[in-house]
Amino acid sequence: MDATAPITQDVMTIPRKAEDGLPNLIGMSREQMKEALIAAGTSEKQVKMRLNQIWSWLYHWGVRDFGEMTNLSKDFRAMLEEKFVIALPEVVTRQVSDDGTRKFLVRIAGGHEVEVVYIPEKDRGTLCISSQVGCTLTCSFCHTGTQKLVRNLTTAEIIGQVMLARDDLGEWPVPGAPNEEGRLLSNVVLMGMGEPLYNFENVRDAMKIAMDPDGIQLSRRRITLSTSGVVPEIARTAEEIGCMLAISFHATTDEVRDKLVPINKKWNLEVLLQSLRDYPKVSNSERITFEYVMLHGVNDSDEDAHRLVKLIEGIPAKINLIPFNEWPGAPYTRSSNNRIRAFAEIIHNAGYSSPIRKPRGEDIMAACGQLKSATERARKSRAQIAAETGG
Ligand code: SAH
Ligand code: SF4
Question: Which of 47, 62, 83 is the last residue of a domain?
Answer without folding.
Answer: 83
